[in-house]
Design brief:
Elements lengths: L6 H8 L4 H12 L3 E7 L4 E8 L10 E2 L6 H7 L3 E3 L12 H6 L3 E8 L5 E9 L8 H68 L4 H33 L7 E3 L2 H15 L5 E6 L4 E3 L1 H18 L6 E8 L2 E8 L17 H4 L10 H11 L3 E7 L3 E9 L6
Parallel strand pairs: 8-10
Antiparallel strand pairs: 1-2, 1-6, 2-3, 4-5, 5-6, 7-9, 10-11, 11-13, 12-13
Length: 397
C-alpha cells in the first residue's frame, strides 16, 4: 500500500511524460536491467517510477528500508555513486547494500531542484557486472536527472498557478455575490425607506416632523449614492472597468444642467456659477457623464469654501468635450496629489473625509471609459480645478 505522504511525489513523477523514456535510455546506456526514480527523505526510500527487467519486485509506491540503500548516503553528500563490479571494488565489496540485494553493478545520480532541495535519485542496478566506467555515461545520466528536476520545478509552478487560478475564480464568485448584495439586498430596503418618507410627508404638517422626514430622505439619498459608488467600485476595480453605453446624445447640456440643479437643491449653502455651451451630437454615456459631474460637484462642495463660488464650465474644444470645475479652499497637499484618483485615497493620506473616498476614482474611471482623461491642478492662488475631457465623437467620424 502506497504511503499517502508520498502520493504527490509519485504523481509529480508520473506526470512527466519523458520519465519512461529516460528510464529506458538509462538501461540502454548502462546495460543494466533495472532503472528507477526514487524519492529519498530523511526516513524513507520510495520508488516513484520503475523500469524492471529482473523482477526486482518494486512498483511505484514501493519502499525499501532507507538505511539498507546507498541513496541514504547520497542524500547526505549529493554526489553520484557508480560501480560496475561490486565484488571486486575496494569499497563496495564490503558495503552492506550490494550484499543485501545481491548487486554487482550500480549507478545513482542525485536529483536536486532549483531551490537546492534534494528530491531523490535516478538509479540503475543489476545482479551482474556492467561496464559503466565511461565518463559520458555519468554525464548523460546527470543531464537526465537535471531534466527530471526541471520538470518537477515546472510541476510545482503549475500547481501554484492552479491554486492562484482557483483562488481567482473563487474571488470572481465572491465578487458576483458582493455585487448582487449591493444591487438588490441593499437598494431594495433603501427604496422602501425613501417611499416611506414620501408617504409620511404627505400625511403630516407638523414642522418638526417634516424636518425629521427631510433628514431621513436626505440620508437615504446619500446612502443611495454610497451604494452606487461601491457598486461601481466593485465593477471597476474587480471586474475590468466601469461599463459605459455610449450613443449619440443631442441634449448633454441639459443633462449637465439637471445634474447641477440636483446638487444645488441638496447643498443650498453652496454658490455656483456655470458656463455651459455643449453642442448636440456628442458620443457618450450621458448618465455616466452626469455621474462624473455629480461626483466632481460633490467633491467641490465638501472640500471647497462656502464663501466663494464653484465655477462649472463645459464646452467643445478641438473635437473634445471639456468639463472643468474650479473651487477655492485649502489646496490639495503634495502628499495626497499622487493618490487622488485612487480609491480610499483621502483616508490613506490621513485626510478627514466624508464617505468612502470613491467619488474621484469613479469619475476618473468614467473618463477613461470614454477614452478621455481627468486631471487636477491645485494652488492657493488659482484654487483647485478638475478638468475632464473626452472625444466628442467617433474618431473616424
Amino acid at each position: 500500500m502506497t504511503n499517502p505522504d508520498f502520493a504527490p511525489d509519485i504523481e509529480a513523477i508520473r506526470s512527466i511524460d519523458s520519465v519512461p523514456v529516460i528510464l529506458s535510455m538509462v538501461k540502454h546506456l548502462t546495460g543494466m536491467r533495472f532503472a528507477a526514480v526514487a524519492r529519498v527523505t530523511e526516513s524513507n526510500w520510495v520508488a516513484c517510477a520503475v523500469d524492471d527487467s529482473i523482477d526486482f519486485g518494486l512498483k511505484p509506491g514501493g519502499e525499501l528500508v532507507l538505511e539498507s540503500t546507498i541513496c541514504h548516503e547520497i542524500r547526505q553528500h549529493q554526489q553520484p555513486v557508480i560501480f560496475g563490479h561490486a565484488s571486486t571494488h575496494p569499497v563496495f565489496s564490503l558495503h552492506h547494500t550490494p550484499k543485501t540485494y545481491g548487486l554487482e553493478s550500480y549507478i545513482s545520480i542525485p536529483i536536486v531542484k532549483a531551490n537546492g532541495e534534494f528530491f531523490g535519485t535516478l538509479c540503475a542496478i543489476d545482479s551482474v557486472p556492467a561496464n559503466i566506467d565511461e565518463p559520458a555515461i555519468t554525464k548523460t545520466l546527470t543531464l537526465f536527472a537535471q531534466l527530471i528536476a526541471m520538470n518537477l520545478d515546472t510541476h510545482r509552478h503549475l500547481e501554484a498557478t492552479q491554486i492562484e487560478l482557483n483562488n481567482a475564480n473563487e474571488l470572481g464568485r465572491l465578487r458576483e455575490q458582493f455585487i448582487a448584495v449591493l444591487g438588490h439586498d441593499l437598494r431594495t430596503p433603501l427604496s422602501a425607506v425613501r417611499m416611506s418618507a414620501d408617504l409620511l410627508e404627505s400625511k403630516t404638517e407638523d414642522k418638526r416632523s417634516l424636518n425629521l422626514i427631510a433628514a431621513i430622505r436626505n440620508s437615504s439619498v446619500r446612502m443611495g449614492v454610497l451604494i452606487e459608488n461601491i457598486l461601481d467600485f466593485a465593477r471597476g476595480r474587480l471586474g475590468g472597468g466601469i461599463p459605459v453605453q455610449r450613443k449619440l446624445v443631442d441634449d448633454l447640456q441639459q443633462t449637465l444642467q439637471l445634474t447641477l440643479a440636483e446638487v444645488k437643491a441638496s447643498h443650498p449653502q453652496a454658490i455656483f456659477i456655470d458656463e455651459l455651451d455643449v453642442p448636440a451630437g456628442v458620443y457618450c454615456d450621458e448618465l455616466r457623464i452626469s455621474q462624473l459631474l455629480s461626483n466632481l460637484l460633490g467633491n467641490a462642495v465638501t472640500h471647497g469654501s462656502n464663501s466663494t463660488p464653484i465655477i462649472l464650465k463645459a464646452c467643445a474644444e478641438n473635437d473634445e468635450i471639456v468639463i472643468s470645475l474650479t473651487n477655492q479652499g485649502t489646496p490639495i497637499s503634495a502628499q495626497l496629489m499622487p493618490l487622488l484618483f485612487e480609491p480610499f485615497s483621502r483616508a490613506e493620506a490621513g485626510q478627514r473625509c466624508e464617505g468612502l473616498g470613491l467619488g474621484l476614482y469613479i469619475a476618473s474611471q468614467i473618463a477613461m471609459a470614454h477614452n478621455g482623461t481627468l486631471s487636477v491642478t491645485s494652488s492657493a492662488e488659482s484654487g483647485t480645478c478638475f478638468v475632464a475631457s473626452f472625444p466628442a465623437r467617433f474618431k473616424w467620424v
